[in-house]
What we know:
2 helices; rod-shaped; mainly beta; 6-stranded antiparallel β-sheet
Amino acid sequence: YNQAELIAIPAEGWEFDSWSGDMEGTDNPAHLIIDSHKTITAIFKQSPLYTLTVNTQGEGSVRINKTGYNQAELIAIPAEGWEFDSWSGDMEGNSNPEILVIDIDKTVVAIFKMVAYHLTAIVDGGNGTITPEEATCSYSTIIWLTATPDKGYRILSWSGTDYDSSKENINRVTIYSDRLVMVKFIQISDMDRDFLSDTEEHGPSGDNPNYDGNGDGIPDYLQDNVVSMHNYNGMHYITLASSDLSRISDMEAVDPNSIPENIPDGVSLELGLFSFIITSLNADGSTNVKFYLDPNLTRGFTPNIYYKFGPTPDNTSDHWYPFSFDGRTGSIITGNTISLFFIDGERGDDDMTVNGIISDIGGPAFITISQQEEFLEEEDRYGCFITCLKYKPKRGL
């Protein structure tokens, strides 16, 4: 009957301080006995201002939305390739958004972590390999892929890469999400089974099925002892032919700069190197191979020796050496033709084994006068290295 409850309600930005007049104290609510006329004053004071400091760890930002005088909503916004992990400091947990009461000075850290994306690379249908097959990486990482077809196969298609239209063995993928890359191989049309496509042997433009680089009247792509192909950089086109009963296989153009030992000074290998295997040798283990160099297809390059990289009977470590003719094995140049003479297991046969197989890596070369003099000074070791050099040039020429 004679009691009242007084509740002080501060405005936003203010807080209750105390009562004065006929009631004193700081209780809120407060109870008052009204046994006479009474006057009460509720005293409010402005709330203090507190500072909120927000920092980030990793890549991202924080948006702050004020939801009350001393209250804020914090929203963590990760950058591309990052994700929100957690809060630390005066606010913990991993809720996003999160509400924070700012009743004292507070510091909050938004922690972001990189997103781990996964790459899977597979061969669709077999007949080759791809590397890497798997990778875990961060956003915008570039990964180079190498597809290696089995012998007699080539790339038909890529999918999931940056360049799906490519037919090259090396491709790339830029990671913006989990990615699946597939490569598919197709069998090469190879009538003579030399592991070169028929199209490659259809002349430098690949459009002449009657191309006959050795001039024997038979298209090269139909003969297993004749190979016509581009060099390693596609700038030149050569023909290689072995004797009628032998067979050429595993033919490959090789960049001489890929050899682990530097090319000797004064030696030019403009056409690069050629790696091949000869089988079905003569009964005595010998065979003869000829390079046909059409000046129109080799841009006028004129070799004066055949140069090899591999072991020799007097040095079983791989090394560069001129394959000059010594009466049994070596090279003889006549016009635009280089004749190579091999004997199974002897100098020039890179496996150095009598096994019915000649293994070779070498190429037409041009050597300078100083190199010619050096080789001729070692004539007792190598013999006359090409038939057109029959005398020792004078010094200084």
